[in-house]
Amino acid sequence: ALASVDLDRLGAVPGDLLFVGHPAWWHGGLLGAHVRAGEPWEASGEIRVPLEMLRRLRVSPGEALRVERLL
User: Fold this and answer.
1) Which CA distances in Å does 37 have to 18, 26, 42, 47?
2) C-alpha span between 31 and 27 (Å, rounded)
3) Can you spell out the DSSP letters for 1-27?
4) Cα 62–64–65 angle (5° rounding)?
5) Measured by CB atoms within 10 angstroms of the end CB, which terminus of the chain is less buried, N or C?
6) Nearest to residue 21, comparing CAs of 59, 60, 70, 62?
7) Rounded Cα–Cα distance for residues 17 and 70 (Å)
């Protein structure tokens, strides 16, 4: 889940397809996942993802993630 401000910044609404990935560019999207945007919450600049997804992306809780809206 993203904050409504962050959804607006991405031009996304709940239900839109998003890419969430490892922040390092050299992974080229290999460490990423396609997810649906959930209902917004109010902590701007933060994303809520399941712990299992963080493990697959090889990032620690609190580490930055790359989030993009897919067309």
Assistant:
1) 6, 25, 14, 10
2) 6
3) -BBHHHHHHHT--TT-EEEEE-S-GGG
4) 120
5) C
6) 59
7) 6
Examine the pLDDT at 30 and tell me if it is beyond 90.
no
**Residue in 28, 68, 70, 35 with CA at minimum distance from that of residue 53:** 35
> Tens digits of per-residue pLDDT, 48-69?
888 999 998 888 888 899 999 9
What pLDDT band is residue 37 in, cutting at 50, 70 and 90? very high
The pTM score is 0.83
8: left (phi over 0), alpha (psi -120 to 50) or beta: alpha
Mean pLDDT of 37-49: 86
Q: Are 46 and 4 in contact (CB under 8 A)?
A: no
